Amino acid sequence: MALSFSPRPPSRFPTPARAPQPERPGPAGAPENVWGRAAGAERLGRMTETIRTLHTSLLTPVELTAIRSLLDDAFDGDFSDEDWDHGLGGMHTLVHDAGGELVAHGSVIMRRVTHGGRSGRSYRIGYVEALAVRADRRRQGLGGRVMDALEEVIGRAYEFGALSASDEGAALYRSRGWRLWEGRIQGLGPDGVVSFPEEEGSTFVLGEAPDPAGALAFDWRDGDVL
Asked: Which ranges are annotated Pro residues under compositional bias (predicted)?
């Protein structure tokens, strides 16, 4: 997935126009980002933040350690090894401050879901995971910047997006155009289909999701399926 796109394919979802940003190297030893160019810098408030999007395979051991530490702190220690595994294997967006410290992260991974309605088919979707902002940098727009990048990946690489939102995060996602999935939620378990009614008020979708009259059945995984 870490390939250069030239020219970029059109996005499935409209993205806000952004003014050109100056080029600025990322952290020492960091590879180029997914679009095959040096990581750009964006001015956020009084700080210059470096925002990069790249595949798990391009992250250094130091970067992976920093991401895990950020997530452990952001979730107050309630971030399991299974949760960590769920956020790997896809595209990551990292925000570093002017001193090179990681202050925000999110990832989008590929998942397969089947739809039991009229479409009766399997979809390749982009599922958002591991979104976190360092405590002292919250409410400064960094989470929105991470979501901008992840939504761009979803729009260009997947048929639609999905995520599981906390009560606190639901308003943010709604404001960005995510919609609550109004149908049933299931998982394709080792022993058959498992229903998850507890997830039906917290699963959001973005883009051309199928008719909610049919259930969405997600691929199985250890830990939380959603």
From this structure: 7-25
Q: Which phi and psi angles does 10 have, rounded to 5°? A: -65, 145
Q: What is the pLDDT of residues 24-40, one digit of tens each?
A: 344 444 444 433 333 44
Torsions phi, psi of 157, nearest 5? Answer: -120, -15
**Domain locations in the chain?**
40-219
pTM strictly above 0.85: no
Q: How far is CA 132 from the centre of its chain?
A: 10
d(CA 100, CA 94): 11
Q: What are phi and psi for residue 189, nearest 5 degrees?
A: -80, 170
Q: How far is CA 187 from the centre of its chain?
A: 20
DSSP letter, residue 23: B
Alpha carbons 36 and 38: distance in angstroms, whole number = 7
Other C-beta atoms within 10 Å of 198: how many?
9
Closest CA to 102 of 55, 145, 134: 134
How many CB atoms sit inside 10 A of residue 55's CB? 18
CATH 3.30.565.10 fits domain 40-219: no
- Is residue 149 within 8 A of residue 119, CB to CB? The reply is no
